[in-house]
Amino acid sequence: MFPLIQRCCFNTLFKLQQLPGASVLLRGRNRTACSSLALLRLQRHARPLSTSLSLKPASLYTAQLRPFHTSLPVSKKKTSAESEAQSQEGPGSLKDCPKPALYLSLGGLVPFVAVPLAMATQGTYCPELAFAQVAYAAATASFLGGMRWGFALPENSPAKPDWLNLANGTVPALLACQALLFKDVTQGALMLTVALGIALHYDISLLPTYPRWFKVLRVVGTVVMVSSLLATVALKSFLEGEQRDDRKIQQNIN
Questions:
Q1: Would you state the pLDDT for residue 44?
Q2: pLDDT at residue 165 in the model
């Protein structure tokens, strides 16, 4: 804009200096005689000059340059609510889990899978191993219920430490204690299946602010634990039946 105005002023002065009337005025010769003639010539030459040197081209230049004006993008930090919303909307899988959480969770599933696998490999039912699996499942259900307390107690937590959240955290522990009181392993395993299912329902439905990868991990872990308990119950009924038949055969032989 400034170079355009400077060029226009320079052209105007240059043309005024070339005019004969302007030269007469500048030199100061015959001012009275040539004043009217100089004014007429100035008006004659200044009119087209003023029209040609109007500010219209400047407005055109600004109109052409206006679309190219862009403001710098302002970088804004993502709030915790936006990050939580994106974590919930994004697809979750076991690949998105942090390595410590993934490896520790998979390591915690080893005792569940090892008990029915060992009994199926040996072909005999071992009540000690079955009870150890039930006791470990009771401890796991109690841990999952206590995790709800740890989520609700912090001040900045979206879950309030009210009666509902804290009471739901104690339900899996109470069911686990009841499962240990049963003398039959089958009844205890079924009770623990209910406790693990309730804990999963709490973590997925009642606490939607958990990350998506954690919900996927909870579903996979619960499926493995319940399947292992039901596999132990099935092996108990099947292997105990075979052992009874073997005993009957041995008694008949003797």
A1: 55
A2: 83
Verdict on whether the full-model pTM lies above 0.85? no
Domain boundaries, the chain: 2-62, 91-253
Among all chains, which residue has been given the structure tokens 């623990």?
192
- Amino acid 97 reads C
9-32 pLDDT, tens digit per residue, is 555 545 545 555 444 444 444 444
CB-based contacts of 233, cutoff 8 Å, min separation 6 = 185, 186, 189, 190
Based on its alpha-carbon atoms, the radius of gyration of the chain, rounded to whole angstroms, reads 45
> Is 72 in contact with 15 (CB distance < 8 Å)?
no
Are 144 and 226 a contacting pair, CB within 8 Å?
no
Rounded CA separation 141/190 (Å): 13
The 3-state DSSP class for residue 123 equals: coil
Summarised one tens digit per residue, pLDDT across range 206-220 is 777 888 999 999 999
Secondary structure of residue 156 in the 3-state scheme: coil
> What does the alpha-carbon distance between residue 87 and residue 211 come to, in Å, rounded to a whole number?
6
Tell me which residue of 144, 162, 155, 153 sits closest to 202, measured CA to CA: 144
Q: Tell which residue, 41, 2, 50, 51, has the closest CA to residue 18.
A: 41
Rounded to an integer, what distance in angstroms lies between the CA atom of residue 194 and that of residue 225? 12
CB 133 within 8 A of CB 230: no
